[in-house]
TrEMBL record, chain A:
Organism lineage: Bacteria, Pseudomonadati, Pseudomonadota, Gammaproteobacteria, Alteromonadales
The keyword Transmembrane helix belongs to this UniProt entry's keyword annotation: yes
Protein name: DUF4212 domain-containing protein
Pfam families (UniProt xref): DUF4212
Keyword flag GTP-binding: no
Domain of life: Bacteria
Transmembrane spans: 20-42, 54-74
PROSITE patterns noted in UniProt: PROKAR_LIPOPROTEIN
Organism: Halioxenophilus aromaticivorans
The Sodium symporter small subunit domain, residue ranges: 9-86
From TrEMBL, chain B:
Top-rank taxon, per record: Bacteria
Keywords in alphabetical order: Membrane, Symport, Transmembrane, Transmembrane helix, Transport
PROSITE patterns: NA_SOLUT_SYMP_3
Record's protein name: Cation acetate symporter
One Pfam family it belongs to: SSF
InterPro entries according to UniProt: Na/Glc_symporter_sf, Na/solute_symporter, Na/solute_symporter_VC_2705, Sodium:Solute_Symporter
Organism field: Halioxenophilus aromaticivorans
């Protein structure tokens, strides 16, 4: 099974890349952003006994990574079906 | 029953369990054994991948490093988990579609060049051997403590056991054994953490306990920790930056892309049945890794607090050396914990001031193993931690040694130099390669270039600077050609190795570092462990430059790139 047309192949790849770019923006914001670059600012906000920046660096970023991979898996599954390139 | 006997029993029992499962799985269904995980659910594959991936660095070393670095240790937490996002979205599905079984094989085919394949093999061997040194450090620490011998003797015993474990081989390939290893490892990590968290805060979930108040008070645990460490002159736990913000940024990036470039992790995704399983397997692996990685900061913070409060129960009230607890005496025997009574008062004064500090040596790698003893937990938990640490170190070391030996025998000998080699000779070559790799890594392990996690971080930097960019460009660019890829890999790993060697010694041998290990000599204040990200940037830049100056890849290679971008039709992957 392959793409019906050359246009389909291009459109599929474009949608794939745009999804990945969006998810990587979130990836960057929670780790490099909240966990490193903005850590001092966020540390002024408490989250229970945690400072928020510290929490992102040692807890929050990791939880977000897990969610990102599952969002990717689900969305790519939908994309594969839309273009008829899923392996079912 | 004394701790030593109990440790032998628990460690022995887990080994019997692994071997038993290996035999049962083999006898139960030969078919399943041959399809190599083909019938295994992504959740099971994810669990096995997690066992494969979490090594002595994650289990024994990481929380100890965080305990002494505080916030700065976050680079390991974010770096080693964030890489799975890259792996799941940018590499695993495409490499699975391609359908070959080693990383150098992909690089050799995509860049239509044997030379590229050889360069990839060399890079792979350099990263993997460095990685094994880190495991050896962890194994040495664990054995020295539980057999009550010096670190050096512990390391030697560890080398012998790793050798037999890796040569037994079959155990590594069976997913169910790895699932058992994961269970032992995660129980051994979380049970003491739950006990300690409950004792300190009344909250049994370590992830929440770290953010809670100490039992019977309204003081937050982290605030108390900040106060205790700053009173002794150490940097504040929750805000202590490692080096500089730039250094932390680069370090984290280096660990992330290194994770995605490590051959023994990538290989796991080649064996799932479909492209979509490669995507979700990475997700499940990260779920199981997250259980340990979000517990680690709690273990770190609580261990540091318990340690400080054991040595100095109240400000100005010091522990007498003669009344030191048993764990203190035991770790002194290994040479990894050292006390020197500088002012001769018989009391232990621990401070950040090097002149008056009497805790002259606390090897960070002992913290996780010592933690349950410091917290006065029952002996069976301490024995369980030993078993977990060994499971983590041995499974990863064995996996890496198999990756090294298959790179030498399959990619180098059979693939390039001696295509007609017999199967038996190939197998022997791989065993000899494995023995040399263990001996070499063990020898270098006597003078490890850092704590186990730091050494492993170096390995990630090397993978980040060499293999990761080649794989990325192989998938996402049709224009990068063989000249570009080879020049890029060589430039990336050379720059990184030179930077590491000039600060940490040639092959990490003390005395050969020509620029010294001091931070003032670091480029932009970036430490050697973190330099892989810079190496990767150089790799990308050189590869693009050279590729654009030379001829575009042939049409069939461009078709191959098109082909791996389509998820369907995995079975046809061998057409090319």
């Amino acid at each position: 099974m392959a793409f019906k047309s050359e246009e389909d192949a291009k459109a599929y790849w474009k949608e794939n890349l745009s999804l990945v770019v969006k998810l990587f923006i979130v990836w960057f914001v929670v780790s490099f952003g909240c966990g490193i670059l903005l850590v001092d600012l966020l540390n002024t906000i408490p989250l229970g006994g945690y400072k928020l920046g510290f929490w992102f660096a040692q807890q929050g970023a990791i939880y977000t990574f897990v969610v990102l991979i599952f969002v990717y898996t689900i969305k790519m599954g939908q994309l594969d079906r839309k273009y008829g390139v899923d392996d079912e | 029953m004394d701790l030593r006997t109990l440790t032998y029993i628990v460690v022995g029992a887990t080994f019997v369990l692994y071997i038993g499962i290996a035999i049962w799985a083999r006898a139960g269904s030969t078919k399943e054994f041959y399809v190599a995980g083909g019938g295994v659910h992504p959740v099971a594959n994810g669990m096995a991948t997690a066992a494969d991936w979490m090594s002595a660095a994650s289990f024994i070393s990481m929380a100890g490093l965080i305990a002494f670095m505080g916030y700065g240790g976050s680079v390991f937490l974010m770096g080693w988990t964030g890489g799975f996002v890259i792996l799941a979205m940018l590499l695993a599905p495409y490499l699975r579609k391609y359908g070959k079984f080693t990383v150098p094989e992909f690089i050799g085919d995509r860049f239509y060049s044997r030379k590229a394949r050889v360069v990839a093999v060399i890079c792979l061997i350099i990263c993997s051997v460095t990685y094994v040194i880190g495991q050896m450090k962890g194994v040495g620490v664990a054995f020295s403590r539980f057999l009550e011998v010096s670190y050096e003797v512990g390391l030697l015993i560890g080398m012998v056991i790793v050798f037999f474990y890796a040569v037994l081989g079959g155990m590594k390939g069976i997913t169910y054994t790895q699932i058992a290893q994961y269970c032992v490892l995660i129980l051994a990590y979380t049970i003491p953490a739950i006990f300690i968290s409950f004792n300190l805060t009344g909250n049994p979930l370590p992830q929440l306990g770290l953010g809670s108040t100490l039992s019977g008070t309204d003081v937050f645990l982290l605030d108390k920790l900040d106060q205790v460490v700053t009173e002794l002159g150490f940097a504040e736990y929750t805000t202590n930056v490692r080096g500089s913000t730039l250094n932390m940024f680069v370090y984290t990036l280096s660990l992330m892309i290194g994770t995605a470039g490590l051959p023994h992790v990538i290989i796991r995704f080649f064996t799932v049945p479909k492209v979509k399983d490669a995507r979700s397997s990475a997700g499940w692996a990260l779920v199981f890794i997250t259980i340990l990685y979000t517990t680690a900061p709690a273990v770190a913070g609580m261990a540091r607090l318990n340690l400080m409060q054991t040595i100095e129960p109240e400000p100005g009230q010091y522990l007498a050396y003669d009344e030191r607890p048993q764990w203190f005496k035991n770790w002194e025997k290994t040479g990894l914990l050292g006390f020197e009574d500088k002012n001769g008062d018989g009391l232990i004064q621990y401070s950040a001031n090097a002149e008056t500090n009497e805790m002259v040596k606390i090897d960070n790698d002992i913290m996780v193993l010592a933690n349950p003893e410091i917290a006065k937990l029952p002996n069976w938990i301490i024995a369980l931690v030993a078993a977990g640490g060994l499971a983590a170190a041995l499974s990863t070391a064995a996996g890496l040694l198999l990756a090294i030996s298959s790179a030498i025998s399959h990619d180098l000998l059979k693939g390039v130099f001696m295509p007609n080699i017999s199967e038996k000779a190939e197998l022997n070559a791989s065993r000899i390669a494995m023995a040399f790799a263990i001996a070499g890594a063990g020898y270098l392990g006597f003078n490890p270039p850092g704590f186990a996690a730091g050494t492993v971080a170096l390995a990630f930097g090397l993978a980040a600077s060499s293999i990761f960019p080649a794989l990325m460009m192989g998938i996402f660019s049709k224009r990068v050609n063989k000249e570009g890829a080879i020049a890029g890999m060589v430039a990336g790993i050379t720059v990184t190795l030179l930077y590491v060697f000039q600060h940490k010694g040639i092959m990490f041998i003390p005395g050969t570092e020509f620029l010294g290990g001091m931070s003032p000599n670091w480029f932009l204040g970036i430490e050697p462990n973190a330099f892989g990200a810079i190496g990767a940037v150089i790799n990308f830049a050189v590869a693009y430059g050279v590729s654009n100056a030379t001829e575009a890849p042939p049409q069939e290679v461009q078709d191959l790139v098109e082909h791996i971008r389509v998820p369907s039709g995995v079975a046809e992957a061998h057409d090319h």
